[in-house]
Design goal:
- With about 70 residues, the protein is α+β, with helices and mostly antiparallel strands.
- It contains one helix and two strands; from the N terminus they run E-E-H.
- The protein has a two-stranded antiparallel sheet.
- A hairpin with a 6-residue loop joins strand 1 and strand 2.
- The longest helix is centred in the middle third of the chain and has 12 residues.
- It is elongated, with a radius of gyration of 20 Å.
């Protein structure tokens, strides 16, 4: 359930933002799923975090995964 923006509501009293997942305009006030527009977008984002979809690539050798053949003699 999204929280559509009412064009009659003054913008000063209502904070409007884009859902980070689908970019739907949604109100901050009264939105139980903020900053998302719905529970669906919130769960999709949580799933991306859980599967490391937002991981940052690392070039530092100290943090690199060990080579699987490194211990072979």
């Amino acid at each position: 359930m999204s929280h559509p923006v009412d064009p009659q509501t003054p913008a000063i009293s209502l904070l409007i933002l884009d859902c980070p997942h689908c970019a739907t305009k949604t109100a901050w006030q009264g939105n139980a799923h903020r900053p998302f527009c719905s529970a669906r977008c919130k769960l999709i984002d949580l799933g991306a975090w859980a599967t490391e979809g937002y991981s940052i690539p690392v070039d530092d050798p100290h943090f690199a995964q060990p080579d699987e053949h490194e211990n072979d003699v």
